[in-house]
Amino acid sequence: MTEFQKLKKLIFGKLEKELPMHFSYHNIDHTIDVMQAAESIAGKEGINGNDKRLLLTAALFHDTGFLNSREEHETISCYIARQYLPDYNYQPAEIDLICGIIMATRIPQSPQNRLGEILADADLDYLGRDNFFILSHRLFTELQAEGIIKDEEEWNKEQADFIGDHKYFTETSIKLRQAKRDQHITVIKSKI
After folding, report:
1. Mean pLDDT over all residues of the chain?
2. What is the DSSP letter of 129?
3. Is the pLDDT of residue 132 over 80?
4. Is the peptide bond before 108 cis (omega within 30 degrees of 0)?
5. Confidence band, pLDDT 50/70/90 cuts, at residue 46
6. Please, which residues have CB within 8 angstroms of residue 168's CB and are 6 or more apart in sequence?
7. Percent residues over pLDDT 70 in the chain
8. Confidence of residue 1 (pLDDT cuts 50, 70, 90)
9. DSSP string covering 69-122, please?
10. Kindly report the CA angle at 111 between 181 and 103, in degrees rounded to 5?
11. Cβ neighbours of residue 41 closer than 8 Å, sequence gap 6 or more
12. How many Å apart are CA 167 and CA 107, to the nearest integer?
């Protein structure tokens, strides 16, 4: 088992055991989804080797901050990454890069490099997929359980604004996801 595989097993275990039960969106399934989307986008964008490993490591850690808090979870995710990564042979410069990639997922997204653009797109890949409404409902349920969103009417308004302001960064995501994302905005706006 490679160092990355061992690390993935450890982090998946933490997410499964330690995240609150009402996290119906920000859970291990989301992390796996983002890792798969990042790997797919990276392949289409010609990213491989060590850059791909760093990208997937950032995807693995990008929402670990939710183990502690919803607020500033990206910053906490970086703190957690800095705790674990040295034990898995990641160098300080690599860890700094990973944290920069993680921070690209903070809303509003503002990636500073190509790997950040890929992770930002992977994190919100679902906005332009057929399973959008299923995943959107999971996020609604999670936010409603925390008292952040009151009802579906408020959620639809929030979603319309959020998706309306969103943009994909990579050519791959623009080509594969933007048109479907725009269709979803139209459906959501029709409910308001």
Report:
1. 97
2. S
3. yes
4. yes
5. very high
6. 121, 124, 128, 174, 177, 178, 181
7. 100
8. confident
9. -STTHHHHHHHHHHHHGGGGT--HHHHHHHHHHHHTTSSSP--SSHHHHHHHHH
10. 105
11. 118, 121, 122, 125, 170, 172, 173
12. 11
User: What letters, b where the CB count within 10 A reaches 16 and e where it falls short, cover 42-52?
Assistant: beebebeeebb
Give pLDDT tens digits for 143-178.
999 999 999 999 999 999 999 999 999 999 999 999
What residues contact residue 117 under an 8 Å CB cut-off, 6+ apart? Answer: 104, 111, 169, 170
67-76: long-range contacts at Cβ-Cβ below 8 A with a sequence spacing of 24 or more?
67/14, 67/15, 67/18, 67/19, 70/146, 74/102, 74/103, 74/105, 74/106, 75/103
Q: Which residue has the tokens 């969106």?
A: 25
1 CB burial (10 A radius; 0-12, 13-18, 19+): exposed
Q: How far apart are CA 148 and CA 36, in angstroms?
A: 28
d(CA 125, CA 132): 9
Give residue 110's pLDDT. 93
